[in-house]
Amino acid sequence: MNFKELKSKKWFSIATNMYVLVLTVFAIWMIFFDTNSLLIHNELQDQIKKLKEQKEFLKKEIAKDKIIIEKLSNPIELEKFAREQYYLKKKNEEIYLIEYEDSLKTKKND
Q1: For position 109, what pLDDT does the model report?
Q2: CB 49, CB 56: distance < 8 Å
Q3: Which of 2, 10, 28, 82 can bridge 88 by disulfide, Cβ–Cβ 3.0-4.6 Å?
């Protein structure tokens, strides 16, 4: 096929049209090379999605912490928390930690 036959094809005349060439170059530039390219836009959308999920998780944690803070404003609850979490005790008091066999992490020899 020589150049004259190729030039007479309809798709060749459309593909070599100046407007189509400029539009194609512009589209490729915007999709791949621009600072606001489609690829970067997709990465940023993924980051936004992750940050929104993290925000929701942290809101739930804040709500839980607020409930705990409200509980700990009561002196009886504060004492209970200190005894359970930090094994604190009053004077002349002894603490015994009871560990059940099934709660211990033991290495079984088979």
Answers
A1: 57
A2: no
A3: 82
